[in-house]
Amino acid sequence: MRKWLDALYSASAWLAGLFMIGILLMVLLTIVSRLFGFPAPGSDAYAGYAMAGAGFMALASTFKKGEHIRVTLLLGALKGRVHKCAELLALSIATLLAGFLAWYSVHMAWQSWEIGDISVGIDATPMWIPQIFMALGTIVFFIAFVDELVLELRGQRVAASQEDAHHE
């Protein structure tokens, strides 16, 4: 199971990287189209969709590597059982919030598909297409929180600090 979860987080990070390349390509297309006077309608909208995809697909991987901003002042002062209870409480709340975000994102993409919602720009993209990457990213993020919560409950969690993340 650990290999599968790590592969899921890695695939999500790679997809985020591909979206970042998509942003670069859309910006370059916009620049070149202006220089040479040909139209590139919708390229700014697609760059925006790629930016949203990159952000949401990167959530789980950055969380698992300890690269999210986390306030550790209080947790650092706690020791033993109190520290473990605070970690469990924080992870439980974060898991619930991530689950709600995932549910809402999936619901929003599904609703856009059902009603045939399209973007208001010249690209007229069906909105469920860019929204599906938000939904997938938040689902993987929720899975990462459940993973961390289960590891904490089992006493197997090794919390990655920001210092560790910068030395990798």
How would you concisely characterize the structure shown here?
The protein has 168 residues and is mainly alpha-helical. 77% of the residues lie in helices and 0% in strands.
Question: What's the mean pLDDT score?
Answer: 88
**Terminal CA distance:** 24 Å
User: Strand portion, in percent?
Assistant: under 5%
Shape: elongated
Write the H/E string, N to C: HHHHHHH
Uncertain residue ranges? 162-168
The profile of the biggest β sheet is: none
Question: Would you write up a description of this structure?
Answer:
- Helix 1 runs antiparallel to helix 2 (43-57), helix 1 runs antiparallel to helix 6 (128-154) and helix 5 packs antiparallel against helix 6 (128-154).
- The chain has helices spanning 2-36, 43-57, 59-64, 73-77, 80-115, 128-154, 162-167.
- With 168 residues, it is an all-alpha fold.
- It contains 7 helices and no strands.
- The chain is 77% helix and 0% strand.
How is this fold's topology laid out?
Layout (H helix, E strand, L loop, with lengths): L1 H35 L6 H15 L1 H6 L8 H5 L2 H36 L12 H27 L7 H6 L1
Helix pairs in contact: 1-2, 1-6, 2-6, 5-6
Features:
disordered C terminus; elongated; 77% helix; 7 helices; mainly alpha; 168 residues
